């Protein structure tokens, strides 16, 4: 029951991930951060099998940082997305594939265009205006279909995110312990204060 | 239902006209019944008039299209000329058969014009590279049965470029509307002697 959400707007990309680290029906940690920054303007959120997620994400993070140091230039979000896809695709047909689903959000450092990439464990890559992974897809995509516009502001984006998390709190049978929310803007990655204690009455 | 060929959904069709060919695909990317993206084109260009359509497992569509971009770029550097559609078709066939016992889960379609004679060329493949040459049309994807029906009834020999565009567009749009796993818009390429026209079709968004 891990939740990953991503929303793009005119000059930002919002990434949100649930805080609960679970093993079976047990919550092991209630303040887990399922995101890693790849460089100044690209952020990746991940879910999937316990060991694979952090291992894969930090492998990608290390390689993105290595590239930045060697070339004194950061890879664009699009370039990173295709790099991650290549790594995940070669893993898919290996003896033990990584079981990781990803959202990769960023703002291009030159064009200032925001972008969001949806990647599943099969390494299917799609550029999308908004995305979710896991059960959250079934509840949130329809909300985002109705309310999302490509030119929304960050404030409107956060409102949209609240609409989604409210519905998840209403419908998901297990408490996901709130969300870590981060926004990528042209100035870098910023943490967004998010009210996790808001009580949503069930239908 | 959980065949790798029908997890993500998608449809592709190629047709022969008079001194022209057309190739078209839908834009859906899904996970079973859930639509994830309506912007996932399945047609790729590998020369002035060589096109490849790929349906099947989305990850393999991306991997195989990238693989052929690499192979065609290497061919162009070695030969100092563009690849011809028939040569490309044989490259596709042998590349797919290389993975005979662990195939790419794709159903490719090649369309193009012969660079010397200007003759239309289309062909399709199974996932392990058996070539299906055709002089009328080739279909592939989860809507292939519907596409066969539409193409059999709408296609006729000797269509000019405009008629061919109308025929392939109507065939694709009406086929994908009867398939839950395809649709959500389409790309249509009309390939003539020194002109390629790409059109984006709006389809039903349901």
Summarize the structure.
The complex is a heterodimer of chains A (203) and B (206). By secondary structure, chain A is an alpha+beta fold.
Shape of chain A: globular
- What composes the largest sheet of chain A? 5 strands, antiparallel
What share of residues are in beta strands of chain A?
25-35%
Instruction: Characterize the overall form of chain B.
Output: globular
Number of helices, counting only DSSP H or I runs of 4 residues or more of chain A: 4
Helix share bin of chain A: 25-40%
* Beta strand % of chain B: 25-35%
In which order are the strands of the major sheet of chain A placed?
10-1-2-11-12
Summary tags:
heterodimer; A: 203 residues; alpha+beta; five-stranded antiparallel sheet; B: 206 residues; 4 helices; 34% strand; nucleus (chain B)
Write structural notes for this entry.
- The complex is a heterodimer of chains A (203) and B (206).
- With 203 residues, chain A is α+β, with helices and mostly antiparallel strands.
- Chain A has helices spanning 50-71, 77-92, 136-147, 154-171, and strands at residues 4-8, 12-18, 21-23, 26-29, 35-39, 42-48, 100-107, 114-119, 125-127, 130-133, 179-185, 188-192.
- In chain A, the strands form 3 sheets. Chain A has a 5-stranded antiparallel beta sheet with strand order 10-1-2-11-12, covered by helices on one side. In chain A, strands 5-6-7-8-9 form a 5-stranded antiparallel beta sheet, covered by helices on one side. A two-stranded antiparallel ribbon of chain A has the order 3-4.
- Chain A is globular and about 50 Å long.
- Chain A starts with a strand and ends in an 11-residue tail after the last strand.
- Chain B is an alpha+beta fold and 206 residues long.
- The model of chain B has no long low-confidence stretch (mean pLDDT 97).
- At the A-B interface, α2, β9 and α3 of A face β4 and α1 of B.
- Chain A: It is found in: Cytoplasm; Nucleus.
């Amino acid at each position: 029951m891990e939740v990953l959400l991503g929303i793009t707007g005119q000059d930002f990309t919002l990434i949100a991930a649930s805080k609960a680290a679970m093993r079976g029906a047990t919550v092991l940690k209630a303040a887990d951060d399922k995101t890693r920054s790849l460089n100044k303007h690209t952020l990746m959120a991940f879910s999937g099998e316990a060991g694979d997620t952090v291992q894969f994400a930090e492998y990608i993070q290390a390689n993105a940082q290595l590239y930045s140091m060697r070339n004194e230039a950061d890879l664009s979000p699009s370039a990173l997305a295709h790099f991650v896809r290549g790594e995940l695709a070669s893993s898919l047909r290996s003896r033990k594939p990584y079981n990781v689903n990803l959202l990769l959000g960023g703002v291009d450092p030159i064009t200032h265009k925001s972008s969001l990439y949806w990647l599943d464990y099969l390494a299917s890559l799609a550029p999308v205006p908004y995305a979710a992974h896991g059960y959250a897809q079934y509840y949130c995509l329809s909300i985002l279909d109705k309310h999302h516009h490509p030119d929304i502001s960050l404030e409107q984006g956060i409102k949209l995110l609240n609409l989604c998390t409210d519905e998840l709190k209403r419908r998901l049978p297990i408490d996901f312990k709130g969300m870590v929310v981060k926004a990528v803007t042209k100035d870098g990655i910023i943490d967004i204060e998010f009210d996790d204690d808001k009580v949503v009455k069930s239908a | 239902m959980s065949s790798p060929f029908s997890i993500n959904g998608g449809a592709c069709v190629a047709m022969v006209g008079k001194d022209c060919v057309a190739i078209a695909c839908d834009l859906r990317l899904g996970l079973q019944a859930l639509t994830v993206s309506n912007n996932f084109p399945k047609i790729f260009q590998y020369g002035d008039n060589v096109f490849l359509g790929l349906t099947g497992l989305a990850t393999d569509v991306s991997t195989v299209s990238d693989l052929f971009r690499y192979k065609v770029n290497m061919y162009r550097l070695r030969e100092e000329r563009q690849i011809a559609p028939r040569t490309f078709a044989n490259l596709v066939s042998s590349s797919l058969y290389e993975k005979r016992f662990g195939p790419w889960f794709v159903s490719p379609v090649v369309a193009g014009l012969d660079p010397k004679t200007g003759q239309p060329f289309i062909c399709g493949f199974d996932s392990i590279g058996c070539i299906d040459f055709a002089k009328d049309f080739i279909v592939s994807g989860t809507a292939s049965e519907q596409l066969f029906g539409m193409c059999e009834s709408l296609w006729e020999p000797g269509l000019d470029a405009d008629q061919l565009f109308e025929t392939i567009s109507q065939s694709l749009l009406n086929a994908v509307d009867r398939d839950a796993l395809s649709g959500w818009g389409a790309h249509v390429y009309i390939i003539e002697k020194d002109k390629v026209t790409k059109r984006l079709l709006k389809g039903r968004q349901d």
